[in-house]
Amino acid sequence: MKNIKRCSWAGDDPVYCNYHDFEWGVPVHDDTKLFEMLILESFQAGLSWITILKKRENFRAAFHEWDAEAVAMFTQKDVCRLLLNKGIVRNRKKIEAAINNAARFIEVREEFGNFDQYIWSFTDHKTVYPPRPIVKLSDIPTHSPISDAMSRDLKKRGFAFVGTVICYSFMQAVGMVNDHMVGCDKATRAGYREKGL
Q: Which of these is catalytic: 19, 23, 96, 129?
């Protein structure tokens, strides 16, 4: 999209710009998409998000179109297969965590009816907006009391690679929080003007 004002982190990379314009901060309630973002965020740990985005379609194919039931059934043979896949992040611990998390995801879904109901309960099923204007990159939080609580509960349920920073990034990715910067068109639509910020 031309002439759109974006958060500075989006830069001019088409992949990043598209993600910024159509996904980041947009509420997601589809379980398959929630599962995708949870796994991708866990793979992002220690890496740049643009690295993950550029491998996204490879991840989609490698993890059976984000079918949690299929991923939960992966064996050590599948782990070895994925470790040879140059199109994804080849980290054994992260791959094994993804398989484990698929099984845990299914357990949560069975308990709550869907994962959406569970995960959005941490924000009372609403998007959380920043208490203060986000003017510069350093104003964007890396975690919050909500992500702290989410991380603790996910770990208690047996999930792996779900620290509070990963949880907060996940919350941004699925629109549980909207951290677009002042001056960004998305921030305007998020209500900064209405709040007088």
A: 19
Query: Is there a catalytic annotation at residue 57?
Result: no
Is pTM beyond 0.70 here? yes
pLDDT in tens, 30-47: 999 999 999 999 999 989
**Is 19 designated active site?**
yes
Annotated active-site residue 49? The verdict is yes
Ordered domains of the chain (ranges, CATH): 27-195 (1.10.340.30)
Catalytic residue among 16, 24, 41, 66: 41
As given in the structure block, the two tokens for residue 84 are 């040879």
Choosing from 9, 23, 49, 96, the catalytic residue is 49
In 70-101, which positions are buried (b, 16+ CB within 10 angstroms) versus exposed (e)? ebbebeeebeeebeeeeebbebeebbbbbbbb
